[in-house]
Design goal:
The structure is a single chain. The chain is mainly alpha-helical. The radius of gyration is 17 Å and the shape is globular. The chain has one domain.
Length: 202
């Protein structure tokens, strides 16, 4: 992989990783509700889980996804249902600490597993692998792609979590908390709309 290709990959990954989406909305909400330390397993699940998924797709798993309409539509349905449920939970989560310990952040395994049912993640991973994976050196190029997303995943998820954590001092009234929660829920609903209306066989 040339330097120019690596820089293009890094730029693509930064845009994909930092722009609003399901992962970023969820960690921002978790940061506001639970703080950075308790949200870190969620961050780690994204930072490690998505690069591992990209590695597998770059090695050939993406071909199964693209060739099987049943797999694509099942993933679309499951992903939409899960994201709608998350959007409802986010919208109704209330002020930080308002749940009196009844809620909890994602665990590492829950966060890593979510990457595999996130249709936006599949679209991103297949687009990236189709552009940057080298069929002549599949393991090497897949490792490079995954390594870039390891950095971007941790940095973007941490950044959005810190944003949510910083909002804790502002979310002191029900009106402010509801505005923040519904904004994060709207990000999830936008993802649902885009996923429901898009073609997944990219």
């Amino acid at each position: 992989m040339t330097i120019s290709t690596l820089l293009s990959l890094f730029g693509f990954a930064m845009v994909a990783g930092w722009t609003p989406g399901p992962n970023n909305a969820l960690v921002a909400t978790s940061g506001a509700q639970f703080g950075f330390r308790r949200t870190f397993p969620h961050v780690a699940g994204i930072g490690i889980g998505f690069p591992f998924m990209v590695f597998c797709i770059s090695l050939g798993l993406g071909a199964i996804f693209q060739q099987s309409a049943i797999v694509r539509e099942t993933l679309r349905f499951v992903g939409v249902v899960v994201l709608l449920w998350f959007a409802w939970k986010v919208a109704t989560s209330g002020k930080p600490n308002a749940q009196s310990g009844r809620g909890r952040p994602f665990t590492f395994l829950e966060s890593a597993s979510f990457q595999w049912i996130n249709p936006k993640g599949w679209i991103m991973a297949i687009s990236i692998s189709s552009q940057f994976a080298d069929p002549a050196r599949p393991v090497f190029s897949s490792t490079v792609i995954a390594s870039v997303f390891l950095f971007v995943g941790f940095s973007s998820a941490s950044g959005w979590t810190l944003f949510g954590t910083a909002m804790q001092r502002w979310l002191t009234t029900d009106a402010r908390a509801n505005a923040f929660n519904w904004t994060m829920a709207a990000m999830l609903l936008l993802s649902v709309f885009l996923i429901a209306s898009s073609r997944l066989n990219v």
